[in-house]
Design brief:
- The structure is a homodimer of 489-residue chains.
- Helices cover 42% and strands 15% of the residues of chain A.
- With 489 residues, chain A is of the alpha/beta class.
- Chain A has 16 helices and 16 strands.
- An eight-stranded mixed sheet of chain A has the order 4-11-10-9-8-5-6-7, sandwiched between helices. In chain A, strands 12-13-16-15 form a four-stranded antiparallel sheet.
- In chain A, strand 5 (207-212), helix 9 (216-224) and strand 6 (228-235) form a beta-alpha-beta unit.
- At the A-B interface, helix 5, helix 6, helix 8, helix 9 and helix 11 of A face helix 5, helix 7, helix 9, helix 10 and helix 12 of B.
Chain lengths: 489, 489
């Protein structure tokens, strides 16, 4: 291609025309520094000229230092291009929009203390990978590949891998959800589910109701999309329903306030760990129904409920209706690296979301969906859940006892799951964190979960990846540090 | 949990209190239809009452038809709940925003003729899966799992899997890109790359320049984001540079016009199949530099270039600068089902995009990234590319000859790749499609690639998945149908 516009004429020596052409290409940066030139034989064939002409051209270029040869390797360009030497510098900071600015400012990964192997870190609530059954996973991969062949590696459907969708519909059925007018879209984890939904139904300036505190990634997404957030306070007993009802009835009269959604995490709420009682689920659902505010239900860690047959997701109250959008994900407890979640809601909404998905990521990896489906349908998940309920249950109980014993607190929240929330007695948890960090212990300061400037005296302890010894050791250090701080005050 | 708020008193028989509680739970929908109740033994232990009381309560509920038993299986709730019988119906159509509306209206999957196995379909430009080396893939999976263990299944980094990033930096190096001030973010294919970039840097009403025609998904994304599109016409010789220069100089004086980006596909342009010459790449780059309009370079199918050592991506002209954002993807030719692409650009931009990625999909499947890395680094890709260049090259040449022979045309465009573009002599390609469909042949009407209402007399033929026989048969049918239509006119 580089020689396609070289039209040789009879007015000049062939070798000079070739030499000038190459030299100008290098000048213009079309042949970059140290890139390889065609061999003299190749080029002579390409241009249909004698090989001698090319050899001669190359020799002159070499003598001028424009190209060089390495014996046995070939001939290469040397000079930096001249025209492009003036750099093109775009000021990307001024081009960045609000979405990106907020996403960057609120990205806690960029501000938090980096993990080090010698720290006892209570920050993570990701699952303990040592519990993953790698042999089952390998079997699932090989089995799925042998069933689907190369098809599973080619383009698939935006909605997802059909067998996985059917499995999940059935699975939601066992939770009391009548799926006859529902459908499922597979997403890249919970986060994409929330992004797809909000991208499709909200506009800048709309309102959203959520628990305060709540999942920090959700807050970040709300703010990045320019939503106004109405927080419902959570206290020891969970949602403050009186304040919620007052808020809702006062909003009803405000003309310019469009409350599009409420966002709620009924099981092992992040960060408080509270499991909402069936009565409160019912109450919340009916309140939202009364005010016609669609519910986004975050199915977070629901699978860890000890007796899942007796507690239902809120979407099971919505069987004949279309008011609840349930976002589920196994990846909070199983294979987070695969990034697979799902949205379950009314068929017509899924039909819309399918097209939005095609605008954003086309579809989720069919290989991953296939592997997960195989793993789930062969009973691997049930075995796994049984195992981790015990594993995390024991850790929870142990950590809870340690906190009770060693950490002076206003109250401790948590009904199980992978984390515990602590309200301190007027101790700044950021200050506490920096003191604990010096002693080799870190945790998640609670303020990141608040939509306002509250929570300065709260913290979340995740224990899923820590040993019993480290849990005890870490909690003792936090407790001692609090006592030191209390004395200072 | 369902029984946690049942406080037994001494004023009433225990069994009546239990019965009323269950009955009210079912009424409220907290126990859904056909869901299982605890066994009498379980419940008596839970409530710390005699088993007889529970048996009695269950008997009465059964006699009232509120619950029923299946021998050996257990006891279940029957009644539909009464309170929730009034459905909650949200009108989601009125809640949908413009983004979703445009994404839905422009979703060609929803309007196009569905694929059937008895059709000869020239619609697809996805790779032929039979060429995938499944044994190599299996090896890569098993090898990566044995190296990384469970870590590759847990949370990873937004930027991507480090070995894959390093591999791709090196790979871009071989294309003449100096990566010293560049970085890479792994994305869910090209589409997410484009979405992340635009989501971070454009605002509704901004302008973007692109080839006309161009990739239909890109047009859809631009329109869904509310961008104004400035099309540069493409003719037989590629971009019309005169009209581009005129447009740019006239825009310069318009105060309210913010041209944020140009979007360009230099290799095997979709749909025309044109490969931009090095001279034109250079010319385009310098024009954009002159007007300070950042370039989004779509690396589409670049890997199919026969002599990739002699033609460079536009980003290799940008070595000392930050004006080009290159979006690459192997998935157009290899394992599209995995959805892996990458953005290569200035480090500071990647740093911003990382946070935006965390707002949208957290990260791309680490398992898939690991498998792909293993496959690439073991030389699987080089072998594969060699094989497919020959395979698709032969098909291209054959299809091109057939078109030349059988299809009356104004001109045919295509320099290789997986598709050929045809401009007909005033024949409406939608009409042609419907006639061909009756005869068992379908293709992609060209109008979907135009930002205006042009291209009504163009079509794109993809041949990657068709046999030589079907290519010939299908092209003959299209040719015959054109002749019939021409007679009718």
């Amino acid at each position: 291609m580089l020689f396609s516009n070289l039209k040789l004429n009879n007015n000049e020596s062939i070798y000079i025309q070739i030499k000038n052409h190459i030299s100008s290409m290098i000048d213009k940066g079309l042949i970059s520094n140290n890139s390889k030139l065609p061999s003299t034989r190749e080029l002579s064939q390409l241009l249909n000229v004698s090989r001698n002409s090319v050899v001669l051209a190359y020799e002159e270029l070499k003598s001028e230092g424009i190209i060089y040869s390495i014996s046995g390797k070939g001939t290469f360009a040397t000079s930096q291009n001249t025209v492009l030497n003036i750099p093109w510098n775009i000021n990307w900071d001024t081009l960045e929009n609000d979405y990106s600015k907020i996403a960057n400012n609120m990205d806690i990964v960029k501000s938090e203390i980096p993990w080090r192997s010698d720290l006892i870190s209570f920050k993570s609530i990701s699952p303990n990978g040592e519990l993953f059954d790698m042999e089952e996973l390998k079997k699932s991969f090989l089995n799925r590949i042998s069933i689907e062949g190369h098809k599973i590696l080619n383009y698939g459907y935006a909605k997802g891998y059909k067998p996985l969708i059917d499995y999940l519909l059935e699975y939601m059925n066992t939770k009391g959800v009548d799926t006859s007018n529902k459908d499922i879209l597979i997403t890249n984890g919970f986060t994409e589910g929330l992004d797809l939904l909000l991208s499709s139904f909200v506009n800048k300036g709309d309102y959203i109701i959520c628990e305060n505190p709540t999942h920090n990634t959700a807050i970040k997404i709300f703010k990045a999309l320019g939503l106004n957030i109405i927080g419902i306070n959570i206290n020891k007993d969970g949602i403050d329903f009186n304040s919620l009802e007052n808020t809702l009835s006062s909003l009803k009269n405000k003309k310019n306030v469009k409350v599009k959604f409420s966002y709620i995490t009924p099981s092992y709420h992040n960060p408080t760990g509270i499991v909402m009682s069936p009565e409160n689920r019912y109450r919340f659902y009916n309140l939202m129904k009364k005010y016609n505010i669609a519910i986004i239900e975050d199915g977070f860690n629901e699978e860890l409920l000890y007796s899942s047959s007796h507690i239902f997701p809120m979407c099971s109250l919505d069987n004949l209706s279309n008011g609840v959008i349930y976002i589920g994900s196994f990846s909070k407890i199983l294979f987070p690296g695969l990034r697979i979640g799902w949205i379950l809601c009314d068929k017509n909404i899924i039909y819309k979301l399918e097209s939005v998905k095609r605008c954003k990521t086309i579809h989720v990896s069919f290989l991953d969906q296939g592997i997960l489906y195989d793993y789930l349908s062969n009973g691997g998940f049930e075995k796994y859940v049984k195992k981790i309920r015990k594993f995390y249950g024991d850790k929870f109980n142990f950590a809870y006892k340690c906190i009770n014993k060693y950490i002076p607190n206003e109250y401790i929240l948590g009904d199980g799951g992978l984390h515990i929330f602590i309200k301190l007695k007027n101790i700044n948890s950021r200050l506490l964190l920096s003191k604990c960090h010096e002693k080799g212990v870190i945790f998640m300061p609670g303020d990141v979960f608040y939509i306002d400037n509250n929570g300065y005296d709260t913290l979340r302890l995740g224990f899923s990846r820590l040993s019993f010894d480290d849990i005890k050791k870490g909690i003792k250090i936090i407790g001692e540090t609090i006592k030191e701080l209390a004395v200072e005050i």
